[in-house]
Amino acid sequence: GGHSGDPVPLALVERFDPAAGPTGSWSRRRSMPTARHNLAAAAALGRLFALGGLGDGGDLSVVESYDAAADAWTTLQAMPTARGFLAAAALGGKIYALGGAGMADLRPSAKAERLDVQAGTWSKLPDMPTGRTGLAAASHGVRIYAVGGRDGGGRAAVESFDPAVGAWSSAAGLGVARFGCAAASAAGVLYVFGGVDVKDMEAPTSVERFVAAAGTWEPLPEIPGARNFLAGAMVEMPCAGGASAERKDAAEDACMHGGSVLAIT
């Protein structure tokens, strides 16, 4: 999905193989049934899920799942709330759709909704304490984390949802308040990178890591290129650790703790 500098939404799907040669390789896959931008995506039970976003007709609630082995898409039950600029994360065979906004007023949403992948049904959850758009989300341990975002100004807020008790709680705020950022968890560590720094409205190159034992965020080496409204994902592959290496077509691989976190624009 996305768009290429104009408001026309795209249905394109491209796959990056970081293990294919020294710089990895991209390949084109079957397009999504619904073209859209500012959608959210998450992977669960061996499938990739595309949720919501903005299309030619405005806000979308459509949910589609991708089977990589068959290179095929399936349309699922729609989200209860149509919106774009949302975030999604998967935990325990369920996908959580958080925050976002509609095109009509761009009012930041606090909504949290959950898809049971096996049952194919949605349920509404307690709202996040902080409504926001352009946030990031990731599963970390037994919780879902909502990170950063915007509610008129940028947010450093970090909140976590515990599915066992069905409640949200606040965590330590980011060192850099940002929106349009990405988050990913690798080898038991939660990372946040990129976005828009609300102090100067520039795209930061900063990366932060959540230290669970101390309940604080600490800075890490910067990513090579500043970017905002990027995506991030964890890829399990051998990695030497420490530094970042350039990847073709603006995909960069930050090697951390035996896993790889991909920052993709």
TrEMBL record:
A Pfam family recorded for this sequence: Kelch_KLHDC2_KLHL20_DRC7
Signal sequence annotation: none
UniProt xrefs under InterPro entries: Kelch-typ_b-propeller, Kelch_1
Keyword Repeat: yes
Gene3D superfamilies membership: Kelch-type beta propeller
Keywords: Kelch repeat, Repeat
Database matches in SUPFAM superfamilies: Kelch motif (SSF117281)
Name of this chain's protein: Uncharacterized protein
Annotated source species: Alexandrium monilatum
